[in-house]
Design brief:
The complex is a heterotrimer of chains A (about 325), B (about 230) and C (about 550). Chain A is built from eight helices and twelve strands. Chain A is of the alpha+beta class. Chain A folds into three domains: about 1-55 and about 85-110, no CATH class; about 115-225, Cupredoxins -  blue copper proteins (Immunoglobulin-like, Sandwich); about 230-330, Cytochrome Bc1 Complex, Chain D, domain 2 (Orthogonal Bundle), CATH 1.10.760.10. The longest helix of chain A has about 30 residues, at about 30-60. Chain A is elongated. The termini of chain A are far apart. Chain B has about 230 residues and is mainly α. Chain B has one domain (about 60-215): Up-down Bundle (Four Helix Bundle (Hemerythrin (Met), subunit A)). The longest helix of chain B has about 35 residues, at about 20-55. In chain C, helix 2 (about 35-65) runs parallel beside helix 5 (about 120-140), helix 4 runs parallel beside helix 14 and helix 5 (about 120-140) packs antiparallel against helix 7. Classes of the chains: A alpha+beta (about 325), B mainly alpha (about 230), C mainly alpha (about 550). The interface between A and B is small, with 10 and 9 residues.
Chain lengths: ~325, ~230, ~550
């Protein structure tokens, strides 16, 4: 009785999930895929719960005790049954694992031609910086149909950047960069939440994601702040802090030339090989001793405390732009 | 009620016989030491991770430690394990005075270890501004690795401090055992508390034998000087 | 097959000397070394903590009726969910079955007079109480708001609340678990009655043994982790501090290395209780004894290998994610095996609907559901969407409340006559089981939906579109709360006014049922000699007495 009530309730909820108001909007290229997996898991859950519950209820009724001195016979062991209900769940789990992992693989690797946007989380707001220089607080404007990669860091505690409609989420950590990517598939306005408890106003660290047509997005960018692009701001800091005095672009300085260094694989003094990505550049600025290149002395001072995370991102944007400078020069 | 046959002193009545009691006590101490391995283990694991990340800073920190006192302390502890084993042996052959003297010697050696550590090493480090959270000063001659040297000293004080706490508890245990031995509680038939405490003492010794090279001997060194 | 060689004594209530009336006075209780009395000391303490933690839950659900919060300021709400979690996890769920039913039953089920180390057992209880006092002090002195997970750097460098007293309380109580686990392992290895081989042991003992392995290996790691957290807060420098190169994520690894196995500490004993209840109330041998026994051990071992599934979105490498994901799927299999074996035990049985059996059946269904929702979280792609939301909250409450608490209540109701020598009113007991089951589902099923819709957890305020589901959940919580109060009332009532219980009111197999209710202090007049397998109902004549 109770079991069928349970099942009935579950079924209603399941059916209700299909209804729009109980399913979140699916507004990214991966959302449908994640939802299909979710529905399969829901079906498996409800199916097996139903099977177990109804079997139990059936046995309870059919084999209810009719006399106090009943002595049911031993039903013995049954290795075949044991193996069956060990192997079948294992196969189901294996299938789910393969499905979920391949989806996860795809969902974790940003396509190379992504638009990059930078995020800094701090108690209790989101600072968002477009490379063209436009800044936003608690709002993220993105173009439709284009892959967008977010590179994120925190100024204080661990936060988490979560857009339910896109089915994406990633922790935002102090002292480190994390990233996620998405491609929006529907114009609209979607929730942005912080999904890692971060203190008093964690629940108010909300935002909105605005997906616009590419044309509208360009217009929005152009009409935005007239401040420098991140690359220009980074160049200004690079000169102000004296980086240019060691990192001469012709390679004759005390430090390596940074022209074209982004994306290259370099050998460290320790013998390890590392690709120069955003995280590498950040480390080189705040903890240079950990990423000294093989043929160079360990004399670069640390700039931790002298630059904000925002400025580090601007420096990163500048160093990255030096790669395209090189290509432009080569092309000439 | 069944009538129990006369049991030797120290028999606990939840057991069937002394044999079961002895085995249970021994297994209990081994299981306890397993929990201690896990307790120190979290600390050792974290140490290994940070040492891999910041080896230059850890080398600098290690060379600032007084390796001669560390080595002396290692010898003191190993000797104390010997005297502990001799105390147990004395009980096994029924020598009461030898038990007591060996136990007292073990305690003195343990106290010597602590004295050397606290006065010659820790106090010295405090004066040299090498205690994180208590006026740590990052020296310019450490260079770019300097900002991570405090991390080494965090581990140094946490690990040797936790070890020292276990030594203090061990000395407390030994005090109780010495009093019991003096009163003749331990005989060739019943010396399980000594045996079990011996296990604990040896374990604390072994922890130090791991700590010493991990903390004091990073990057190789020559005793009595720098590099 | 012969039956156990013990006479069953019938006795009118309280007229025989038993562990409850052997000695009177506060000192005889506070200085007892009798495992049965210590079990009762624990029963009182953890019941108190359960209602304190439950009170915080009531406040939380009342607050969440309105999107902007109906009751308290966000800072206070943050403290409520933290303290609810800390108290329920460390001071109720972890000790619940092991410290009460385990302490009472382990010696009796194996035919021993007490645990291997009775004084250590008493010390364990005192350590628990001291730890609880520190945490309650933290509650009174302004509370703590870090979440029960204490993530750094918020807990180490930013929170202005009573983190150190709370962490100290948990640290101290951890030693209570460690010593209890140690006691159980040594007892089970060394003090089994003659003839009681490992494969004749009741499955409850296997479950307690597996739980004890986790107590021993896992708890010290959280102890050192909280110790380091406390030092960092005190000294303003430490190994999780990014300023000197520390890694806040290292804290998460160390924390979850214990806390994931900890959730199996919370469910394994309940599974052990299940095996006892299902066999007794279907009057049949368990189906697949060795499979159930080994599944307990496998769960204990694999549980140490899956902690990273709490950290899939922390930026860990994809490959680490894959490894933890596959291991997390693996740990689900032994649990599934148990559920199938319990169900098969009912086949061709002789099933009665006493209250403990209703709790058992509720457990099996709710645990199945809770466990299967774990697969959503072991699956990397869905975990990204669901992590940090109410889906997680619903998942673990299905297992810990729908599972562990139901098993605990089922066990309490099953062994109550043995422990107290009294019977409770069965009608009320069945009614309460029903109320709890209904209230539980109404409270937590909507939370799955909230999570899927994207509502994060630990939110003091929330967007208005989530209100309907929140109100449903809060309505269910009020029913659940009432459901928990009902047993408190009739069980307490029964201790004074309940009819006397015979030695074996359920007609169950097991050495504990061969003693009077309540048992004498030394458990058995003569240590029994065991000659038959567990749950051998088919060849025995045991009936309700």
């Amino acid at each position: 009785m109770i079991g069928s009530l349970q099942f009935g309730w579950d079924f209603l909820c399941f059916a209700a999930i299909q209804a729009p108001q109980l399913r979140p909007e699916a507004a990214s290229s991966i959302a449908e895929g994640v939802d299909h997996l979710y529905f399969a898991l829901t079906f498996i859950t409800l199916f097996f719960t139903f099977v177990i519950f109804s079997t139990i209820l059936f046995f309870m009724v059919k084999y209810r005790r009719r006399a106090e001195n009943e002595r049911p016979p031993d039903t013995g062991e049954h290795l075949g049954l044991e193996l069956a209900w060990t192997i079948i769940p294992t196969l189901i789990c294996a299938g789910l694992f393969v499905w979920a992992s391949s989806l996860y693989f795809e969902n974790s690797r940003p396509p190379s031609a992504s638009t990059e946007i930078f995020v800094i989380g701090k108690q209790w707001m989101w600072h968002i910086q477009h490379p063209e220089g436009v800044r936003e607080i608690n709002e993220l404007h993105v173009p439709l149909g284009v892959p967008v990669k977010l590179t994120m860091t925190s100024e204080d505690v661990i936060h988490d950047f979560y857009i339910p409609a896109f089915r994406v989420k990633k922790d935002v950590l102090p002292g480190r960069y994390t990233s996620l990517w998405f491609q929006a598939t529907k114009i609209g306005t979607y929730h942005l939440f912080c999904a890692q408890y971060c203190g008093a106003d964690h629940a108010e660290m909300l935002g909105w994601v605005y997906v616009m047509s590419p044309a509208d997005y360009e217009a929005w960018l152009a009409g935005g702040s007239t401040s420098q692009s991140m690359q220009q701001a980074g160049e200004a800091i690079f000169n102000k802090l004296g980086c240019a005095s060691c990192h001469l672009s012709d390679g004759t300085g005390r430090g390596p030339s940074l022209v074209g260094i982004y994306g290259k694989e370099e050998t460290l003094k320790s013998g390890d090989k590392r690709v120069v990505d955003e995280a590498f550049i950040r480390q080189a600025i705040v903890n240079p001793n950990s990423v000294v290149l093989a043929k160079y002395p360990a004399i670069m001072p640390t700039f931790q405390g002298q630059v904000t995370e925002e400025q580090v991102l601007q420096l990163v944007a500048y160093v990255k732009s030096l790669a395209s400078e090189e290509r432009k020069t080569d092309a000439k | 009620m069944t009538v129990h046959s006369a049991h030797p002193p120290g028999f606990a009545h939840q057991f069937e016989d002394m044999e079961q009691q002895r085995e249970a006590g021994s297994l209990g101490m081994w299981v306890f030491l397993l929990t201690e391995i896990m307790f120190f283990g979290g600390l050792f694991a974290s140490y290994i991770i940070y040492r891999a990340l910041y080896l230059p800073a850890f080398e600098i920190g290690s060379h600032l430690l007084e390796v001669q006192f560390g080595a002396l302390n290692t010898a003191v502890l190993i000797l104390s394990s010997l005297t502990m084993a001799l105390a147990i042996h004395s009980a096994q052959v029924g020598k009461r005075r030898a038990q007591v003297w060996f136990l007292i010697t073990t305690m003195i050696l343990g106290a010597a270890f602590l004295a050397i550590k606290f006065t010659f090493e820790w106090h010295h480090d405090y004066i040299e501004h090498l205690v994180p959270g208590f006026g740590f000063i990052i020296r310019p001659e450490w260079g770019a690795a300097g900002q991570h040297v405090p991390m080494f000293f965090c581990f140094y004080f946490f690990m040797t401090g936790l070890h020292a706490l276990h030594m203090i508890i061990g000395i407390g245990l030994l005090t109780v055992l010495t009093v019991m031995a003096h009163r003749g509680r331990f005989t060739p038939e019943y010396y399980a508390p000594l045996e079990v405490s011996g296990l604990y003492w040896h374990f604390v010794d072994i922890i130090w034998i791991f700590l010493f090279p991990l903390l004091y001997l990073i990057g190789g060194r020559y005793i009595g000087g720098g590099h | 097959m012969s039956t156990a060689t013990i006479d069953v004594h019938e006795a009118p209530a309280g007229s025989h000397v038993n562990y409850l009336n052997a000695k009177y006075g506060v000192k005889s209780w506070l200085l007892t070394t009798d495992h049965k009395r210590i079990a009762l000391l624990y029963l009182v303490s953890i019941t108190l903590m359960f209602f304190v933690g439950g009170f915080f839950a009531v406040l939380m659900r009342l607050h969440l009726i309105e999107p902007q919060g109906a009751l308290v300021q966000p800072e206070t709400y943050n403290k409520l969910f933290t303290m609810h979690g800390v108290i329920m996890v460390f001071f109720f769920l972890v000790p619940s079955i092991p410290a009460t039913l385990g302490n009472f039953l382990v010696p009796m089920m194996i035919g021993a007079r007490d645990l291997a180390f009775p004084k250590l057992n008493l010390l364990s209880w005192y350590i628990y109480v001291i730890g609880a006092c520190f945490t309650l002090y933290a509650v009174i002195s302004g509370g703590v708001d870090t979440g029960w997970t204490f993530y750094t750097p918020y807990s180490s460098s930013f929170s202005h609340t009573s983190v150190i007293p709370t962490a100290l309380g948990v640290f101290i109580t951890g030693f209570s678990s460690i010593l209890t686990g140690l006691n159980f392992v040594v007892t089970i290895h060394k003090m089994r009655a003659p003839g009681l081989t490992w494969f004749r042991l009741p499955l409850f003992i296997w479950a307690i043994y597996a739980t004890s392995i986790i107590f021993i290996l896992g708890t010290p790691v959280i102890a050192i982790t909280l110790f380091l957290l406390g030092l960092e807060r005190l000294l303003h420098i430490g190994i999780f501090d990014p300023a000197i190169g520390g890694d806040p994520i290292l804290f998460q690894h160390l924390f979850w290395f214990y806390s994931h196995p900890a959730v199996y500490i919370m469910i394994l004993p309940g599974m052990g209780v299940m095996s006892e209840l299902v066999t007794c109330f279907s009057r049949k041998k368990i189906f697949g004894y060795s499979f159930v026994a080994f599944s307990s051990l496998s769960i204990a071992i694999i549980s140490f290998l899956v902690w990273g599934h709490h950290m899939f979105v922390t930026g860990q490498s994809i490959y680490a994610g894959l490894i933890f994901s596959v291991l997390s799927f693996m740990v689900a299999i032994p649990s599934a095996v148990k559920v199938f074996n319990w169900t098969a035990t009912l086949y061709k049985g002789s099933i009665s609907y006493d209250a403990p059996m209703l709790y058992a059946l509720g457990f099996i269904g709710l645990f199945t559901m809770g466990g299967l929702t774990g697969l959503f979280l072991a699956s990397l792609a869905t975990d990204v969407h669901l992590n940090g939301t109410y889906f997680i909250v619903a998942h673990f409450h299905y297992i810990m409340v729908g599972g562990a608490v139901m098993a605990y209540l089922g066990g309490i109701h099953f062994w109550w006559p043995k422990i107290t020598g009294r019977l409770y009113p069965d009608g009320w007991a069945r009614f309460a089981a029903l109320v709890i089951f209904v209230g539980f589902n109404l409270t937590f099923f909507p939370q799955f939906m909230l999570g899927y819709l994207g509502m994060p957890r630990r939110f003091a305020v929330y967007p208005a579109e989530f209100q309907v589901l929140n109100v449903m959940s809060s309505a269910g919580a009020s029913i659940l709360g009432i459901g928990y109060l009902i047993p408190l009332i009739y069980l307490t009532w029964s201790m004074r006014y309940g009819p006397a219980a015979g030695p074996n009111p359920w007609g169950a197999k097991g050495l504990e049922w061969t003693t009077p209710s309540p048992p004498p202090t030394e458990n058995f007049e003569e240590i029994p000699v065991v000659t038959e397998d567990a749950y051998d109902y088919a060849h025995s004549t045991v009936t309700r007495v």
